[in-house]
Design a protein that fits this description.
The chain is α/β, with parallel strands linked by helices. It has a single domain, classed as Acetylglutamate kinase-like (Carbamate kinase). The chain has 8 helices and 11 strands. The protein has helices spanning 30-41, 62-67, 72-96, 118-126, 144-155, 188-194, 201-209, 224-229; strands spanning 10-15, 49-54, 101-105, 114-115, 130-134, 159-164, 169-170, 182-183, 185-187, 214-218, 236-239. The strands form 2 sheets. It has a 9-stranded mixed beta sheet with strand order 4-3-5-2-1-6-10-11-9, sandwiched between helices. It is globular and about 50 Å long.
């Protein structure tokens, strides 16, 4: 198959755990996992390297459990373990699609995943293997958004592709407000000042400090990942300026 040109050399795709639920209230919808795997299969035509960070909110949300009385550190570690479940489910679907994949966990569990080692991760990427980073940063009080920003900087990614259920960043919730205005481009500072729910403030600040752009787009619209890689203007780009 003819190789296509990507705008980027190395990218990190951030997936929320909730994306894996589909229409369910909890857990993993295998149809959605397979859909994501099929969308990612198309990137084999591009000469690029891709890593993935996945959340765990479809199984367990540490912040919510903490608000209900669970000790925050324990709750966050449980949330990290949920991301490992999601990573293994996605790895299974990707490899059934013929895509070599490695899971690296920030919490060591040698029977299931490799430990996170930056140099090993980069070597996998250079060999065109997808690398899924699981268990967040391995530390409580940090979200998987922050993990995505941190891993992106560590591996030298050109961009974070933030896959969501909406088609970009709005000035208010488009589900609740039909008059909500979508931004085609917005600065890190404006995201922070306006309190927009793109990523948490730690993640945005890390991207800002390292001039790492974030493209926010709708995951469930077919071929959006491909279009983003081609440099087509979809969703919202968050960058300096």
């Amino acid at each position: 198959m003819k190789s296509q040109k990507s705008k980027f050399r190395r990218v990190l795709l951030k997936l929320s755990g909730e994306a894996l639920m589909g229409d369910k209230n909890f857990g993993i919808d295998q149809k959605v996992v397979q859909y994501i795997a099929n969308e990612l299969k198309g990137i084999a035509q591009f000469n690029l390297q891709m890593a993935i960070v996945i959340g765990g909110g479809n199984i367990f949300r540490g912040l919510e459990a903490s608000a209900e009385g669970m000790e925050r550190t324990t709750a966050d570690y449980m949330g990290m373990l949920a991301t490992v479940l999601n990573a293994l489910a996605l790895q299974d679907a990707l490899e059934k699609n013929g895509m070599p994949t490695r899971v690296q966990s920030a919490i060591e569990m040698q029977e299931l995943a490799e430990p996170y080692i930056r140099r090993r991760a980069i070597r996998h990427l250079e060999k065109k293997r997808l690398v899924i980073f699981a268990a967040g940063t391995g530390n409580p009080y940090f979200t998987t958004d922050t993990a995505a920003s941190l891993r992106s900087v560590e591996i030298g990614a050109d961009v974070i592709l933030k896959a969501t259920k909406v088609d970009g960043v709005y000035d208010s919730d488009p589900v609740k407000n039909p008059a909500a205005r979508k931004f085609s481009e917005i600065s890190y500072i404006d995201v922070l000042n306006k309190g927009l729910k793109v990523m948490d403030s730690t993640a945005i600040s890390l991207c800002m400090d390292n001039k790492l752009p974030i493209i926010v787009f709708n995951l469930m619209k077919k071929n959006n990942i491909r279009k983003t890689l081609e440099g087509k203007k979809i969703g919202t780009i968050v960058k300096g300026g």
